Amino acid sequence: MARRRALRLSTRVTLFFATTALLGGIGLTVTTYLFARNSLLDQRTVSAEAAATDNALDLNRVLDEDRRTIEEAVFDLDTDPNGWATLITRTGSEIPSRVGLTVADFPDQLVETVERGQSGRQYFRDADGEPWLGVGVAIRSYDAEYLEAFPLDTTERTLRLLATALIVGSVLAALLATFFGWSTSRRLLRPLSRVADAAGNIAHGGLDTRLEEETDPDLNRLAGSFNEMADAVQERIEREQRFASDVSHELRSPITALTAAVEVLDGRRDDLPERTQQALDVVVSQVRRFDAMVIDLLELSRIDAGATDLNPEVVDLVDLCDRVSQRYGYGDLPIEVHRRAKREALVDRVRFERILGNLLENATTHGNGPTRITIEPSPVKRSVLMAVEDEGPGVAASERNRIFERFARGSAARHRIGTGLGLALVAEHATALGGEAWVEDRPGGGARFVVRLPTEPA
Fold this sequence. Notes:
By secondary structure, the protein is of the alpha+beta class. It is built from 9 helices and 12 strands.
């Protein structure tokens, strides 16, 4: 099961600020809206009940008059300009304040409450969906009911504007908090980014990389600890490099003398007994292997110390591969160029010869000999791929990175002759040229050792 990729820390900090602001804004919006709504409706309800009661008292004084006088009194009531009222007399007749509006326009529950001799109020919407507040007052002395409707469209419009303003404010607050969280996370993580960059530089060979002092005491402690660690790592690596270089130099002279002596004995092998010749063959092969190992160690020491020169120039890869192949005894090795691949590359001739030569020797020793060299286009811009293929047992997936380490051997090459430094030199030289080296499976069996080379200056 694939592991789900976690969000970056800066993204999580930004989302935390945004979510907190959004939830806080929603809570504040809902609370403010409900408080404002209740406050406005309470004010409207109190004023409506007071107005309806006053109008009912005014009608109470004329209910013993004739119908015409009562109708005039209803029409003269101080009702809301956009509202209306209805009086239901003892006889059950209705007297509305506006033509075309009757008691049927009021909610049934409110009418039933007033008919029972109780006062009441109720919010409702008319047939057009407009909001109203209905207030009913029972005039018990005359067995009459007074109903009045107060429009709430202004109140609803005010609440709608308030809700819009609160929502817009919440969104703006969330956006502001998101920007603040993003900027804060960048500011807080900037020191960690510098630490990561410095660690990456050290990992790629920049052992003198150090962090500058920070103004914040906690961050300055981190920088100080990192610099102390970098000092210790640099000192240890340089000590090991000096040790390897010194050992290689010290071994070079006795190995040279030993090689010369062995070559003299090998030149007079016909004078030696057969068993002595067999022992001499073992000594000659091991001395030569030892000599090659010392030479490789010296070369790696110079690379580590930065003492090797780099002279890049644009060369024809096909021509250069052919020359190197002939020099190493593979003159008939086919060189295939992909139709979309560039033939030119920006390389150091000496380093490229070491790369290709070591790959050819590796294919001979561990892959039953090289089968071809290919020049292919690279998915990386301004680069080209050069590959050496063989028909050997291939390289296990678990060993494809390790075999480019020094003195590392794959399981298939464990019992074969070799110094264990050839592929390490390939990787070091490829990196020095601005490229990289890796191994992959060859279609049909075997291995493909691939080197990416630059075609233009970085």
